[in-house]
TrEMBL record, chain A:
Keywords: Nucleus, Transcription, Transcription regulation. The gene is LOC112044024. InterPro entries: BTP, Histone-fold, TAF8, TFIID_su8_C. Belongs to the TAF8 family. It comes from Bicyclus anynana. This is Transcription initiation factor TFIID subunit 8. Residues 12-88 form the Bromodomain associated domain. CDD domains: HFD_TAF8, TAF8.
TrEMBL record, chain B:
This is Transcription initiation factor TFIID subunit 2. It comes from the Eukaryota. Keywords: Nucleus, Transcription, Transcription regulation. Residues 1113-1122, 1147-1160, 1169-1179 have a biased composition (Basic and acidic residues). Residues 992-1012, 1091-1203 are annotated as: Disordered. It comes from Bicyclus anynana (Squinting bush brown butterfly). The keyword Transcription regulation applies. Residues 1182-1191 have a biased composition (Low complexity). Belongs to the TAF2 family.
Amino acid sequence: MTENTEKPESSCDARRRILNIAVSTVLLETGFESSDRIALETLTEVIQCFFTEVGNSAKSYCELTGRTEPVLGDVMMALINMGISVQGIEQYAARPKRHVIQPPQQASVPRTPAMLSAGSKAKPPPHIPFHLPPLPDPHAYIRTPTHKQPVTEYEAIREKAASQKKDIERALTKFLAKTSETHNLFNTDDNQVYPLIACKPTFPPYLSCLLPTDQVFDFDELEYHFQVANRTEDLPADKKDQSDNEGDNGGDNENSSQPEIIDIPMSSPERLKSGG
Amino acid sequence: MKKERTGDNCRPFKLAHQILSLTGISFERRSVIGFVELTIVPLTDNLRYIRLNAKQCRIYRVCLNDQYEANFQYFDPFLDICQSDPNTRSLEVFSQYHLSAAQKIDPDHNSGELHIQVPDDAAHLVGEGRGLRIGIEFSLESPQGGMHFVVPEGEGTLTEKSAHMFTYGHSARLWFPCVDSFAEPCTWKLEFTVDEALTAVSCGEMLDVVYTPDHRRKTFHYVVNTPACAPNIAVAIGPFETYVDPHMNEVTHYCLPNLMQILKNTVRYLHEAFEFYEETLSTRYPYPCYKQVFVDETEDDSTAYTTMSILSTHLLHSIAIIDQTYISRKAMAQAVAEQFFGCFITMQNWSDLWLAKGIPEYLCGLYSKKCFGNNEYRYLVHQELQEVVAYEEQYGGMVLDPWQPPASGARVESKDVYYFPVRNVHTMSPRYVEVMRKKSHLVLRMLEQRIGQELLLQVFNKQLSLATNAANTKIGSGFWGQLLLSTNLFVKAIFTVTGKDMAVFVDQWVRTGGHAKFQLTSVFNRKRNTIELEIRQDSVHERGIRKYVGPLLVQLQELDGTFKHTLQIENTVVKADITCHSKSRRNKKKKIPLCTGEEVDMDLSAMDDSPVLWIRLDPEMSLLRSTVISQPDYQWQYQLRHERDVTAQSEAIDALHNYPEPATRKALTDTIENEQTYYKIRCRAAHCLTKVANAMISSWAGPPAMLTIFRKMFGSFAAPHIIKQNNFDNLQHYFLQKTIPVAMAGLRNIHGICPPEVVRFLLDLFKYNDNSKNHFSDNYYKAALVDALAATITPVISVLQPGAPITADSLSADTKLVLEEITRVLNLEKVLPCYKNTVTVSCLRAIRRLQQCGHLPSIPAVFRAYAQYGQYIDVRLAAFECLVDFVRVDGKPEDLSSLLTAVENDPDPGVRHGLARLLVSMPPFERAQRHRLDTEAVVHRLWNQINSQLSNDARLRCDLVDLYYTLYGLKRPICVPLPEIQAMMKQMHNKERERLERERERMERDREKRDRERELEAKPVIKQEIDEVSVKYEMDVAPMEPLPKPEVPRDDNLPIPIASIKEEDNVDVTTVPDLPVRVYSSDYSKREFVSDNAVPLPGMSGSLGPVGFEPGMFRHDKDDLGAPKAKKKKKDKKKHKHKHKHKHSNKDKSKEHKDKDKSLPPRPPSSTEHLKIKEETRETLSSFSSSQSPSEDIASMPSNMSF
């Protein structure tokens, strides 16, 4: 049994299970009440080998006669050739009190995973007769998108960005609060719910405050923007138009709202994290 | 009148040149060794004593002409100001001594701390007009004022830690011997020998830097060729980084290490200020160079000295910071303006301080008008006017030049308007100096209106050119006096330039204090089509207000345009009929012309038949005045909507607070939305709308006020409930975006709490705040959001047991959300600090707010940690603010004491001053309320500080004088009895003691009996949840009889002793300490405490029924500590001991409260009334919710809150 395919394995299992049941039934009929698992397995194995041999042999006979599908005669021939008497087999099959094995449940056909459906199927044009199969997905004959289309809904994006940022911040602050000294806002000893990280004096105290690290700015870019902004001040009409547009297209497409600068991608990961 | 004695001619010598050399500058020991040499030119031949100023220096040697060692005496009256009256504790007395101390060493009175005696054998050196050199060797250790060493703690060398030092204030005597007068300019040679790694920045041009022979130190040589006076000399030494201004290479900037980048950004516009002043004054900058040094731990943002300014490093900011830019630019521009007036041209006397402060303020005002716009300028002037008016009404009229009485008008103010002397800058309250600056600015602006800006600038120009000429001469020419400016000289100069005599103006506004106050009412006379105005000056006798006589401009906006009418005000009541230009018919289609010439459409439906749209008084602010204009609401609304002047709009907003109605709401909403309106007006309109909305809450329909506006302006297009990503390119929107959430947070619904919708809205703002695409930092915005959250908090409605501790679980859901947000951003600041930690500052205030409202237990520990040295200055001050508030409400004497320790000893002078101001503005206890903190120890401690300890820090001393005044007033504090009375009382105590011993036995017996009886009665005592009320209640109800009049003056109703000064023959008197406390449920014991002479208690006048005096009433808690315990023991045996304990704990508390509450005017014993007061005083609800124990109160509590 190979590992890579799951389907054959399971169908093989199913057949084997049927064989198993058959063997058990015969055993029951014979009068056994129980059997060792290993004995049952051995018998099953024996019968499986037997059937395989019969099958192979029957197939050979059938091919010998120039057919592709074995018929009963081929099986007979195979059995006889194997030295097995076929007499009484009919009576055996019709014996009384025989146990009937329930036909195995139709295994639900595992659904073939739908093809990556992209786009909606186009209706066949009128010149194609209706009985022909429908057209495949457009990606099959137009183009195949190589990535998933991002969610474009503005609200969802903002929501996601906000909650991501919040989660990161919360995790970070919680971690720091757990690993450092804290202030307690309550009189209780337990300080798990709203711990405040204790403040430590730093010297000189002004450095971290005058050179803040909460946001990373590209100062050259700001300088550039600043000068451009100053220049546009001289052209109030333009500027006004711009800001009006800005109001209209709102946040839907943020990049287009700042047409006056070439948006140099700034070191955005940090900024995203710390933007709030 | 004798010949005018001025600051420059009172000394018998002139100062020609001074050498200052500081050599041994040690950061470790914070010490300086130095040498000065003053070259003086005696004006007489028989100069025997030379008086110089020197403080906190140790003087080793005084040498004349390097040859003759002179004897000297050192005398500083500030070391013990009230030396001749050591027991006084009254500010009245102190004030006199304070002034005389200041004058005893005032160089302008030819005095000083250092008296040098010219030895006989050196007498030949003295000759009129012959230079005499006085060399003085001195040292200075751990200076307490004037010079500050910043030596950060921690590892590393001094340079690595950015240790630096600088001088501050304008008291040169604190760091070198000199003539510490603004009226004695001379040329200078300055030398500073410093460590190799350090830079010394000082006044004048740097000549040379010379290494010492050992190559470990170097000497900076500076020379000041333009005469400068000693107070304008400064030095800063540290590991500075240097930046030469790219636009003007005469200008150099210095900053501490690592700050170069933001330094470059901060100073980028400084050259514009220079250009502006040079152009405006049409004078060259008077000095060859200019230096700006940014240092840490300064007292002020900027201080100007000759050719240099020492500025606070906290002015530095990067390009991404918005709010600080305005402050920094103004501070630097102000410092440059002071180079012209204040440094180059100085004042002749202290009386001319207003010119030295006012002219740069005026020039800087002109610059900010150019730089920030006319609206900003007018708004600033209006704010200043209001501030001056408010100060004068609180403290009395401010006379800018009090030395010379006004020539004509006989109105001479009584001399002691203030509780501090205003005749010397070392005794003035810092707040006074601040307001004086503003008033001077206003007066100069008024002068500009009288003579015209061009002419006024010409006057300045003339002064400057005279001074420039004089500065280029030698001392011998005698022209140096032209570097000084005085009120009289200024008036003369105006006359010379313009031909106008401004003496009357100066008399009216400079030499007389106070401002005018006009009340205007108007009636429209339909028949005659006139408007009848009545202008009254009713309150001329109130403090700070005086009668105005002269022209007054009234501006009427009518349907046909703006019309100005000048009325002559001659009396306190002036009536005028003004004929209207417009007919009252409504020509609806016609546009209405405004004062600016624009024509606008107006909706005139609100008007009645008067054609007047609105009335304004003195629209150009050409008087120092306050106005009360009565006009109907719709006129105010028109004024707000259509008047173009920001001052008018701002006045309209103030008035509209009183008209909560839909039309007002509409007018305010439109103003907020109007893009043409000045942004500060829009922000104020937002806050006003909050109040209006709260007042009309019962009829308010629709979403909370401003929510729609905010969403419209800042909501994103696709999802209006989500705010756009921040984009602060439009600064007006930026300021609105900061303001509206705070304004909205002030909204309350009918239950008195912030609508949940608003809270959610605010939390969403936090959540969706996204600054990733912004060009500016959002630190101020984030701080505003935290402020907004804090503003939503309302007093807690607790379902808890009142005494139960507040835990994290007991918070309400909303509070949890708020607190979670606050802790999150505060914690985040630890990892990612924002500019100036603005968020931390806001968070601290928010936490305090939560404590005040009883959501959190009132614990000061957090604030203490943030107030430590080593935190950022803004954070420290915010934490101190919270601590001051805590002390006021829940503080123990130790807490107050630790604050005072910080005021006295904090390493940062800015914090000392700032904290003192905080204490003044939020005093820890009210005057004469017998507050638990109002103890004798505090009096003595403060007194000791102002009387002697702060001899070297005039500003802090004056801060504490302010505090002393706030706490105790002018007279001797009530809690400090006069020593005579104390002695008398002691004697009486002794006499009485024996008698009392006898009585005590009897009393003991009595009491036991009484206790038993009371227990039997065991009536439920009326218990209110606030103890003070219950006390009041009981006192009012108690059928007490009057009692002996204490023999003490009423002012001095003393805490303990009154009880013991009763007449000897009053047998019933008892001062036995262990009396049962007052629950006067039975008459039983009354007679014992009471006699027949009646006198109401000082604070209790007007209460119902006779209010009695009970022995032991004024006792401190200490006294009755023993008694109840003893009693409890007894009671333990009894059955109802539980009940009793209860009663007692209640009583003990009521006693504590009683001390505090005694002199409050009696209030009706309704607890809601009381609660209102609670809110006003912003006491912590938790403080009293936890202080009460009786469980019966639970039920009454929520209903009392009545939210």
